[in-house]
Structures are given as structure tokens and as C-alpha cells.
């Protein structure tokens, strides 16, 4: 099982942050592409993982933030620094990678 990161985009402006990563997981000679999407905004947060279905050319949901054992941060008064947000994104990405790897371990 080999994991590599592809395209990565990150934006942070005012009270809105987005982070998108393409994760490539090679299993038994087949590469499965995943899209990890993070979004934080005033009183809301989302983190989702989707798998690309090459046959049907679409993304299928695989997990969300709650599946990883984390709650969404919904405090309207919390204002996080960019460093804090990047730390949160890194933590959720690590947990997302553990989750998708667990799907393909026998």
C-alpha cells in the first residue's frame, strides 16, 4: 500500500478557510484517488473524504468529520489563527488517511 499526495490547494481569508487535497492510494497495483475537503467559516466546519469512481467519473462520499471521531467546531465566537487552522487540517488529514487505509487492509 503506497500513499502519495497530489494536488493541494489552500485559501484563508477573513473568517473563511478552505483546504483541498488529492490523495492517491495504490493498492495491489491499482491507484484509488481520494479528495479530502476542509472548510471552516463563521460558526461552522466541514471535513469530508470522497473516492473517485473512475468507471462512472464521479466522487462518492467515504467519510466525514464525525466518522473520524471529531466534532464540528461550531462556536461563532471562536476566531482561530492560521497556524491553529493548519494544525486542525493536518490532524484531520492524518485521521482521514488512517481511515481510508483501514478500508483496504485485509
Indicate the proportion of strand residues.
Answer: over 45%
* Series of secondary-structure elements, N-terminal to C-terminal: EEEEEH
Number of DSSP helices?
A: 1
- What global shape is seen? elongated
Q: Radius of gyration, rounded?
A: 14 Å
Q: How does the major sheet shape up?
A: 5 strands, antiparallel
Low-confidence stretches: none
Overall structural class, as computed from helix and strand content, comes to alpha+beta
The number of domains = 1
Care to describe what's here?
With about 110 residues, the protein is an alpha+beta fold. The chain has one domain (about 1-105). About 20% of the residues lie in helices and about 50% in strands. Strands 1-2-3-4-5 form a five-stranded antiparallel sheet, with helices on one face. The termini are close together.
What is this structure, in a nutshell?
This protein has 106 residues and is an alpha+beta fold. It has one helix at residues 82-103; strands spanning 2-13, 16-27, 30-41, 44-53, 58-64.
Amino acid at each position: 500500500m503506497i500513499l502519495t499526495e497530489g494536488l493541494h490547494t489552500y485559501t484563508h481569508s477573513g473568517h473563511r478557510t478552505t483546504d483541498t487535497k488529492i490523495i492517491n492510494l495504490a493498492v495491489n497495483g491499482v491507484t484509488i484517488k481520494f479528495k479530502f475537503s476542509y472548510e471552516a467559516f463563521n460558526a461552522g466546519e466541514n471535513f469530508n473524504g470522497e473516492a473517485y469512481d473512475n468507471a462512472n467519473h464521479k466522487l462518492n462520499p467515504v467519510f466525514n468529520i464525525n466518522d473520524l471521531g471529531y466534532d464540528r467546531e461550531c462556536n461563532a465566537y471562536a476566531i482561530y489563527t492560521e497556524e491553529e487552522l493548519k494544525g486542525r487540517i493536518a490532524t484531520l488529514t492524518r485521521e482521514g488517511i488512517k481511515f481510508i487505509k483501514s478500508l483496504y487492509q485485509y
